[in-house]
Amino acid sequence: QINATGTIASRALQIPFNVGVWFGLLGILLCSMLGGMRAVTWTQVAQYIVLIIAYLVPVIWMSNKQGFGLIPQLVYGDAVMRITELEAIHGLGTLEAVEGAKSGLKPLSKPFVEAASGDYA
């Protein structure tokens, strides 16, 4: 946070980075001393509100752009069905049998030595 404070202050005020760090630290110290823990708590609340909005806006924007509406959680099933259709069209999501492979879980459940010998009976 101190690095970010210095960077923002140095770019916004056109001052050296070190001076920006000191100005940021002084501002934080002054706010904490004058406002007390209540001011620090409300600052944290404001930061969390900004973070929540910053996380939700891109999700809502992308969902709306894809045609799923403003609340993507409500149409999650439609999105899964659409993905399933696209996989079938493009041939994705299907596995082909490997030649020479044994079927079932028996080869996986045998110890490695028995499986390596080729005796699956």
Protein described:
By secondary structure, the protein is an all-alpha fold. It is built from five helices and no strands. The mean pLDDT is 80.
* Largest sheet composition: none
Strand content: under 5%
Category from helices, strands and their pairing: mainly alpha
**Would you report the number of β strands?**
0
What general form does the structure show? elongated
What key attributes describe this structure?
121 residues; elongated; mainly alpha; 5 helices
Short overview:
The protein is mainly α.
Produce the secondary structure layout.
Blueprint: H1 2-13, H2 17-65, H3 76-90, H4 106-109, H5 112-117
